[in-house]
Specification:
There is one protein chain. Helix 1 runs antiparallel to helix 11, helix 4 runs parallel beside helix 6 and helix 6 packs parallel to helix 7. This protein folds into 2 domains: 242 residues, TIM Barrel (Alpha-Beta Barrel); 68 residues, Putative flavin oxidoreducatase, domain 2 (Non-ribosomal Peptide Synthetase Peptidyl Carrier Protein, Chain A). 46% of the residues lie in helices and 15% in strands. It is of the alpha/beta class. It starts with a strand and ends with a helix. Strand 10, helix 9 and strand 11 form a beta-alpha-beta unit. The relative contact order is 0.11. It binds flavin mononucleotide (FMN).
Length: 320
């Protein structure tokens, strides 16, 4: 799979997820065989105003490559300036967000709301592609709502205006993350454009990864929620799609070791005070399916320090 001149290894990318797929989580997923990852979305206006938060979101560590910086906004020139500015963080790709459903984003005309104006999508892709000499990609949904399923039209316009690949999440903005996911529209986009297409939506394991590939014919896939508390999913997908091997789930020791690596990484990048607050939600994902999960989650949600994490891990060992 290639995006422009960039080769992606493996079979699946980690999807951009604001608030969860931060640097520490992206590094972890890449260490388990994700072939590509995308930053949390960054506001083009925030970049224009030199916001500290935007700068932090664009930081990429050496273990994360190949990695895209994802930007959102509505104004072609502001988006082009943001893309140019982001190059100092050495992304391999600039990805344009045309899929975020959140009222804060789509309500202002950005994210998934852009799909209501395909011509504007084209102008944004063109402005950004002209501004940088690395590949520019677009992440879209199936459409804005059930009456406006226009992913094929938007994908063609993006291709005509310089996009090097397209990711399609098979849901409308109106659906947010609710079922069902529409793989037919992903297949239709794949058939309609020459550039590579990345399929996205509801992949959670090796078998669902294979199904998305086979049903749609896409060139690559992207996994979001299915990687939360489950970063080894990339190892499972790679083993199955390359050799047909269904790997067993990691044992408790490995799971706890991964949890510890994950949270230590978050604290390294964000400091213990902020990092441990954020660690609570990450930890909760790992606890899914554990015996006494509700009790353990309560412990997780009171963590303040890395020592608290050690205590939680001891509690998990004794209760499992
Ligand atoms: C918490 C969360 C945050 C997300 N943030 C972004 C984002 O910043 N940019 C983006 O393009 N998509 C974002 N998404 C959408 C995902 O990238 C993905 O398209 C969606 O979750 C469907 O894939 P999945 O079924 O594998 O999770 C987010 C999704 C979630 C659950």
């Amino acid at each position: 799979m290639k995006i422009g001149n960039l080769t992606l290894e493996g079979f699946a990318a980690l999807a951009p997820m604001a608030g969860v797929a931060d640097r520490a989580f992206r590094e972890l997923c890449m260490s388990f065989g994700a072939g590509y990852c995308v930053s949390e979305m960054v506001s083009s206006k925030g970049i224009a105003y030199h916001s500290k938060k935007s700068a932090e979101l664009m930081e990429i560590s050496p273990m994360e490559h190949p990695c895209a910086v994802q930007i959102f906004g509505t104004e072609p020139e502001t988006m082009a300036d943001a893309a140019r500015f982001s190059l100092q963080y050495r992304p391999d790709v600039i990805d344009i967000n045309m899929g975020c459903p959140a009222p804060k984003i789509a309500g202002g005309g950005s994210g998934a709301a852009l799909m209501k104006d395909p011509a504007l999508c084209g102008r944004i892709v063109k402005a950004v592609s002209d501004a940088v000499d690395i590949p520019v990609t677009v992440k879209i949904r199936s459409g804005f709502d059930g009456e406006h399923i226009n992913a094929v039209e938007v994908a063609r316009i993006a291709e005509d205006n310089g996009a090097a690949a397209i990711t399609v999440h098979g849901r409308t903005r109106e659906q947010f993350y609710a079922p069902p996911v529409n793989y037919d529209i992903i297949r239709d986009v794949k058939r309609a454009v020459q550039i590579p297409v990345i399929g996205n939506g509801d992949v959670a394991d090796a078998l669902s990864a294979k199904h998305l590939y086979e049903y749609t014919g896409v060139d690559y896939i992207m996994i979001g929620r299915g990687a939360l508390g489950n970063p080894w999913v990339f190892r499972e997908v790679n083993a199955y799609l390359s050799e047909g091997r269904l790997l067993p789930k990691p044992d408790l020791d490995e799971k706890l070791d991964v949890l510890s690596r994950h949270i230590t990484g978050v604290v390294e990048y964000k400091g213990e005070r902020v990092g441990m607050r954020e660690a609570r939600k990450h930890t909760a994902y790992y606890l899914k399916g554990f015996k006494n999960a509700a009790k353990l989650r309560n412990l997780a949600f009171s963590m303040e320090t890395l020592d608290d994490l050690k205590r939680l891990i001891d509690a998990i060992r004794t209760s499992t």
